[in-house]
Amino acid sequence: MPVLAVMLMLTACNKDDDTPDKPQEAKGVPTLVTIVFEPGQLGAMCTNDYLQLDVLTFANEHKDSVVGSFICLRTFERTREAIKEWAEAGKDAPGSEHRLLILASPELLRCMKGVTLRETDHVLMLRTWLDDAKSVGPAGRTHVLNLSYAQAVRQAVERYKAKYLEDYADTLDSFSQKEYGPYRIYRTFCSVHVADSINETLHELFPEKKIGYPFDNTNENTGFYDIENWGLGVIDEQADQCNWSEMVLIMSYATTWDPLSDGVFSQPIQFVDYGVFNRSYEWYWITHGYDDEQPQCVIIGEPGNIEKQLDYIVPNYNLKSWLSRWLANPDNMPEEEWGEVSLTIWENLIGR
Q: Which pLDDT score, from 0 to 100, does residue 291 have?
């Protein structure tokens, strides 16, 4: 059975047939909107699930003008084949003037190799630098929708600095060395440069620190207190991600850090962006953290616990709003849009 045959089609009703912001509806041919996720990155009530819901809701509200679908398979290889099938299916078949392919992560750039889109197709990429998106998307019809975490990163740095200065006030003296870091960003892949401003903001706050990628040989001189990007280390196109929870648990253990080490007082922060596997990371701290251990973690995603002091940066792309504007005028959308989010702190979650 073809991959597209098993993709869930998301449609419903809309009775307001005469509104002027539905240009395709008059032709009687629905516009196809398809969102693609990384392998295994659905099903834990995380960011991707809400993006999928945005497409569902949008299709429900524009039944006569929009058909929505999604792709989320077990491997990048199968995902690439599904995207190629999506592109081929629209070449000669009659359809609406415009179609939209949404890639929810820059890690999906690899899946666009060998894909040829129609002249009127559009591509929207999330968390992706515009130049990277343009390298695979159609000229003049490639867009990015990003969120800047700069404000949240600055809030986190100040929060943890104040927290550790207070917690260790009795231990520190005027002779104590105060070291900033280590700062680490944990993702599924560390080789992909994500457009979220985490690296850039940390480097702006601490310009003397290097930005490193431990699995990249060009960054061998990165020090322990620098800004490091850590991935799970899986690069095989055919490897599925179903066993990654165990790897995330191992990385969770590695984030435990004593702020007082060899006479050095440091203020470590880890930014954790594992998608659906954030839940594994939270579970580790809920079940394995000792009373005297506190996580130095800011999770990129929706809150999943109130047990441990985990702060969050919650991505809110407002994809549904972007889709509404695109449907009304698909040929006049800006290439690049950025939003900004703030830090969601643990103490505020307890009262929910």
A: 57
